[in-house]
Specification:
There is one protein chain. The chain is mostly helical. It has a single domain, classed as Rhopdopsin 7-helix transmembrane proteins, CATH 1.20.1070.10. Helices cover 77% and strands 3% of the residues. The protein is built from twelve helices and three strands. The protein has a three-stranded mixed beta sheet. Helix 7 packs antiparallel against helix 9. The termini are far apart. One of its GO terms (molecular function) is olfactory receptor activity. It comes from Mesocricetus auratus (Golden hamster). Belongs to the G-protein coupled receptor 1 family.
Length: 313
């Protein structure tokens, strides 16, 4: 099937933000700035967690892998988008489009599962603090991270196969800046209802499974927090979850809006702007939220900056 598709169109063309005319240069400067800050922030979080021994705990191990996943996600999308803003519509091969969709979907799904793992970590830390070290041992942490990445790749592969089983003979122009499922589906010829249903089911499985696990973890956390007699104790317990909850709300809000809607509500031009929020803005929020709300990360960042300044001195 893939070979038949390729004989119809050997490549696709991203239209990107071509309709914005002269504003594309302004968008390039804006997105490049956000992209550089996103990459720098996430890489810096990974380095700080790696170098600061105080952050060698399961919670920050998972955070570093989330930052790594977000970094890979943006690397697979944003550079080509920036190039398109400068050079105009860009061609991408059939296999290149399928590859980009596979990796972008895989990293996005991996992020969901990593967030559910981080929720489980908070559950153990608050509901069974005396057994935290023994339960969240290195072996279990490695298994949780490995399962998250493997699950993400499997769901990403499933979504890619569901889309690229179709024929693309009617058009090769993608009204988007990367090979996302809605815009690629919109240029497929023939009956796409089965593929639309397949994407909806896979998206629901990823979001519902991961969100269900997070909800169960926080249900137990809430019960445990409410059982703490002092208000100060409840506040401290909840503060350890605040950063994770903030990231969960933003991440699942964007993902649900984009992938759990009926096809009739799609608007490719509007959705292209919305896609910027989860390809550029959302990966940036992860390090910002944890830097602003987490005292341990704040302290590690201050130490890193101080060490850098002393080293230059």
């Amino acid at each position: 099937m893939a070979q038949d598709n390729a004989t119809c169109w050997r490549d696709f063309v991203f239209l990107g933000f071509s309709s914005f005319g002269k504003l594309q240069l302004l968008l390039f400067v804006l997105f490049l700035s956000l992209y550089l800050v996103t990459i720098t922030s996430n890489v810096f979080i990974i380095i700080v967690i790696r170098l600061d021994s105080h952050l060698h705990t399961p919670m920050y191990l998972f955070l570093s892998f989330l930052s790594f996943s977000e970094t890979c996600y943006t690397l697979g999308i944003i550079p080509r988008m920036l190039s398109g803003l400068v050079m105009g519509g860009q061609a991408i091969s059939f296999m290149g489009c399928a590859t980009q969709m596979f990796f972008s979907a895989s990293w996005a799904c991996t992020n969901c599962f990593l967030l559910s793992v981080m929720g489980f970590d908070r559950y153990v830390a608050i509901c069974a603090p005396l057994h935290y070290a023994s339960r969240m041992n290195p072996t279990l942490c490695a298994q949780l991270v490995g399962t998250s990445f493997l699950s993400g790749y499997l769901f990403g592969l499933g979504m890619t196969l569901v889309i690229f089983r179709l024929s693309f003979c009617s058009s090769h122009e993608i009204q988007h800046f990367f090979c996302d499922t809605p815009p690629v589906l919109s240029i497929a010829c023939g009956d796409t209802r089965l593929s639309e249903l397949g994407i909806l089911i896979l998206s629901l499985l990823v979001l519902l499974i991961s969100f269900f696990l997070i909800s169960v973890s926080y249900a137990y956390i809430l019960v445990a927090i409410l059982s703490i007699p002092s208000a100060e104790g409840r506040r401290k317990a909840f503060s350890t979850c605040a950063s994770h909850l903030t990231v969960v709300v933003i991440h699942y809000g964007c993902a649900s809006f984009m992938y759990l809607r009926p096809k009739a509500s799609y608007s490719l031009e509007r959705d292209q702007l919305i896609a910027v929020t989860y390809t550029v803005a959302t990966p940036l929020l992860n390090p910002i939220v944890y830097s602003l709300r987490n005292r341990a990360v704040q302290s590690a960042l201050r130490n890193a900056f101080r060490g850098t300044l002393l080293g230059k001195g």
